Amino acid sequence: MAILTCKDLAFSYDGSTVLEGVNFTLNAGNYLCIVGENGSGKSTLMKGLLGLKAPDRGSISFGEGLKSTEIGYLPQQTQLQRDFPASVREVVLSGCLNSLGKRLHYSAEDKKRAAFNMERMGIEDLRDKSYQALSGGQQQRVLLARALCATKKMLLLDEPVTGLDPIATGEMYNLIKLVNLCDNITVIMVSHDIHAAARYATHILHLGQKQLFFGTAGQYRESDLARRFLGGNRL
Amino acid sequence: MSEFFHMFSFHFMQRALLVGGLISLCAALLGVSLVLKRYSMIGDGLSHVGFGALAIASALHVAPLAVAVPVVVVTAILLLRLSQNSRIKGDAMIAIISSSALAIGVICVSVTTGMNTEVSSYMFGSILSLSRSDAILSAILSAAVLLLFVLFYPRLFAVTFDETFAKATGTRAELYNSLLAVLTAITVVLGMRMMGALLISSLIIFPALSSMRVCRSFKAVVLCSAGISLGCFVIGTIASYMLETPTGASIVAANLLCFCVCCIVGKK
Question: Of B4, B3, B123, which Cα lies nearest the Cα of B54?
Fold first, then answer.
């Protein structure tokens, strides 16, 4: 059963089309990597999926009772956040924002979920530490825990390993794969790291202002497009 | 010592301490979000607009707060919208609006009443300028600001920390930004009478900056800046009475001192 279906999607800014012809379907538990060069429309598609930008044409539909506000989103960090005085617990708990509904404050259940996700990401010892004092890898794990608080079904990750050292990068990829396999959470990741994409993802979507490729990671590895994109080196 | 207790027997002092205390709390709470969102200059810009509005109100002989509150609230929302969409960047826009409003206010004053003590009190603040009706209105509005802040605390935190994430989870970030702007506008206008148009923004910025030197969580920063703001207000007001210095300036001086102490403590 499809959890996400995009049909003939097109987006534009100020009247000029930046992305068109996007057609793909994901099933629950798939792991999709969106690759492409800068300006290929990756971020635009991501905004579209989150409901932050309306498509010009086409449709995005979610299945299995998922709403666009119930996607766990891990955005790229801004400079502002790096020196923001907040404890790890506060940041993770803010992921429960979409379950507030009409309530004004977080419930005991929300707090339990935040604690559970901190434990899962191995950051429960850091819960009273200040977010700004953490290493890059720890900060990303905090944001992943927050994203997990916001969803039960789908994670959307915007270049989650940017700026991390090789060890932290590997840990991050493993955590994401773990969540994907154990909890059957669908993962959509925007990435520059094409090699990791081909290794971890089940599906690849290659954009270049239009959809250049969609298929399984195995098919992608065999495609001419992948060879060209990688400069002749086969994966 | 008897002089110290004697000052609390004056009605104007009681009024000033009550209203000023409430306003200091509001300013400190809002200040944390404003400083973190890099909106510090909005407070400064709004106070100049407030001065212009008060000058016009006093020229027309209408109740000053009744004119200034709506004018500044509208400006605050405009500033927020413009800084997001317009081609002139936010800080430049604030500079343009604040100096224009100040200019209009000064022209208005010089054409009508001239530079009298009332106008000077708008510039530099005076604790005597608080009338009974002003005091009641100020108390009600600042209580409302405090209540709204407490009620929407989780959402305000989320919008301050990560607006994109908040929007993605279906939170109406623009609404809460506007709420922040409106609450700030009200606080600025109310605080202006006491602190003066030139000094009110420090009431918003200083406590937040001071507490950010020593605290490591958002809640601690909020609580600590509320405490610092209230403490500095009381110390500044008492000092101004005892030493016969201007109230607004004394409160700013107390905040500056506190900021220096926090910087030293935070370094360790």
Answer: B123
Residue among A52, A86, A104 whose CB faces B168 most closely: A52
Chain B residue with the nearest C-alpha to that of A157:
B165
Mutate to test the interface with B, among A94, A105, A146, A153 (most CBs of B within 10 A): A94
A67 CB burial (10 A radius; 0-12, 13-18, 19+): exposed
Q: What CATH number should be reported for the domain whose range is B2-263?
A: 1.10.3470.10
Spatial distance between the Cα atoms of B215 and B232, rounded to a whole number of angstroms? 18
Between chains, do A97 and B161 touch, taking CB under 8 Å as contact? Answer: no
Enumerate domains of chain A plus CATH numbers. Answer: 1-66+153-235 (3.40.50.300), 79-151 (no CATH)
Q: How far apart are CA B47 and CA B38, in angstroms?
A: 17
Q: Tell me the count of A-B CB pairs closer than 8 A.
A: 88
CB–CB of B216 and A90 under 8 A? no
Return per-residue pLDDT of chain B as tens, 268 residues. Answer: 677 778 778 877 888 888 889 989 999 999 998 888 878 788 888 989 998 988 888 888 887 778 888 999 998 888 877 766 656 666 777 888 888 998 998 888 888 776 676 777 777 777 766 778 778 888 888 888 889 888 999 998 999 888 888 888 888 888 888 888 888 888 888 888 778 888 888 999 999 999 999 998 999 999 999 999 999 999 998 898 889 888 888 999 999 999 999 999 987 6
Q: Supply A153's token pair.
A: 């079904």
Closest residue in A to B213 (Cα) is: A85
